[in-house]
Specification:
single chain; about 325 residues; alpha+beta; Rossmann fold; D-amino Acid Aminotransferase, Chain A, domain 1; Dna Ligase, domain 1; 6-stranded antiparallel sheet; 4-stranded antiparallel sheet; 13 strands; about 35% helix; globular; D-Ala_lig_Van_CS; metal-binding; D-alanine--D-alanine ligase
């Protein structure tokens, strides 16, 4: 059995969800017989990690600080193996602008978009280009922070009446904002697991059906506000296209171990929206639900992910 530090909490807007994910992972590791050291991220975290010298860290940090490569780079400096993707892949996936540019360059369908920085708005008068960008992207469109998870700061616009307000609302969450064409269709999530020494595979496609409006933060984490079809109810011919798009995105972005790729199936086209390198593992989270549907218990899922960190001679992570 191993000595595992479970990193959770932190200061991002997804702190509460991270605590739930971390607590559930901690209990699973304990049931598996590992010695677990739960660490809520704070100023003493690095010193505690140096003192503990754990065999590995199980990263359960959502949002800034956990999914952007920050803690991954720190763990590499401390020579502590860790779960999930490396610093570069984490940073790419956390930044929707970077991720979409990689997807586009790789020929993977992703909705048209334009990027605005707050500095350009404040110092270069970039607000004068908003209407032009919106027309090029096309309505309806999404306005959202480039580096924020769980649909925080997301607005849907049918026209340009509230465009400037929506952009500045998104700037409340990030200094970089995306205007992205709103794609209508079935919302499909592809949880991907990559056991050590094996190729990544989609566990089970999940179809998301919010009870009201968008699949936002409240809909994600409030029991009863979203229904799921597991497996997703899509035409048989679309399943292979969805899985191929998800796995292509996973590889193009340099992900490792596990991730979740979010897509919209519009007609026959699987549009990739983004990839999440540390998806939630709460009771309502889609990743463990998909694993269960694929015949993998929560403990087996956690152990498989951990084995990827503990495996001797594992390839370096991006």
């Amino acid at each position: 059995m191993a000595r595992i530090a479970v990193l959770k909490g932190g200061t991002s807007m997804e702190r509460d969800v991270s605590l739930l994910t971390g607590g559930r992972v901690q209990h699973a590791l304990e049931r598996l017989g590992h010695t677990v050291y739960p660490l809520d991220i704070e100023e003493s975290t690095t010193r505690r990690l140096v003192e503990l010298e754990p065999d590995a860290a199980f990263v359960c940090l959502h949002g800034i600080g956990g999914e952007d490569g920050t803690v991954q780079a720190l763990l590499e400096t401390l020579n502590i193996p860790y779960t999930g993707s490396g610093p570069l892949a984490s940073n790419r996936c956390m930044d929707g602008d970077q991720a979409k540019r990689v997807l586009r360059a790789s020929g993977i369908p992703t909705p048209p978009f334009r990027t605005f920085w707050r500095r350009a708005m404040n110092e270069m008068g970039a607000s004068a280009a908003l209407d032009l960008a919106a027309e090029e992207v096309g309505y309806p469109l999404a306005v959202k922070p480039a580096r924020q998870g769980s649909a925080l700061g997301l607005s849907r616009l049918e026209d340009g009446e509230r465009l400037l307000d929506a952009v500045y609302e998104a700037f409340g969450y990030d200094t970089k904002v995306l205007l992205e064409r709103w794609v209508e269709g079935q919302e499909i999530l592809a949880p991907i697991l990559q056991p050590p020494g094996e190729e990544p595979r989609v566990l089970t496609l999940v179809e998301v059906r919010p009870q009201e409006g968008m699949y936002n933060f409240e809909a994600k984490y409030t029991p009863g506000m979203t229904d799921f079809a597991i497996p997703a109810e899509v035409p048989a011919a679309a399943v292979s296209r969805l899985e191929e798009a998800a796995l292509s995105a996973y590889r193009a972005l340099g992900c490792s171990g596990f991730a979740r790729v979010d897509m919209i199936l519009e007609g026959g086209t699987p549009w990739v929206l983004d990839a999440n390198t540390i998806p939630g593992f709460t009771e309502t989270s889609t990743f463990p639900l998909a694993a269960e549907a694929a015949g993998i218990s929560f403990e087996e899922l956690v152990e498989t992910i951990l084995e990827g960190a503990l495996r001797p001679g594992a390839p370096a992570k991006l």
